[in-house]
Amino acid sequence: MSGKFNLEQKFSLFTEHWQPKVVAALNGQEVKIVKLQGTFPWHHHEHEDELFLVWKGRFRVEFRDLLCRPWSGRRRCCRAWRGAPHGSRRGGRSHRVRTGGDAQHRQYRR
To answer: d(Cα 55, Cα 2) in Å, to the nearest integer?
Structure first.
């Protein structure tokens, strides 16, 4: 079974910000896409790491322990380790792909 899908097409299906859409699942984790605008709220994940990929626009992830990972442009990645508080104090606009979360009990569309 093919797992092929087009990210540009998936992003074109919605306009709202801060509403992640699950597009696939692999190895027990979800692959989500989301459109972001403005400040990224501080949070952490107790049980999983999180991978961010900027598909379009600019985005910045900051870590409270003085480790700051600024990045912008297209198709650059950043990883947030399990339990590490992360967020952003600076606004921006981007289309983002991320992994994380438990995919075992969720339905997803291809």
So the answer is: 22
Report the number of distinct structural domains present in the chain: 1
Query: pTM of the prediction?
Result: 0.75
What's the maximum distance between 2 C-alpha atoms anywhere in the chain? 44
Residue 109 covered by a domain: no
Residue 108 lies in a domain: no
Backbone Cα Rg of the chain: 14
Chain segment 52-84, per-residue pLDDT in tens: 888 887 777 788 765 455 555 556 677 888 898
13-63 tens-digit pLDDT: 999 998 999 999 888 888 999 998 888 788 888 988 888 888 887 777 788
Domain of 58? 7-102
What pairs with residue 77 in β-bridges?
Answer: 53
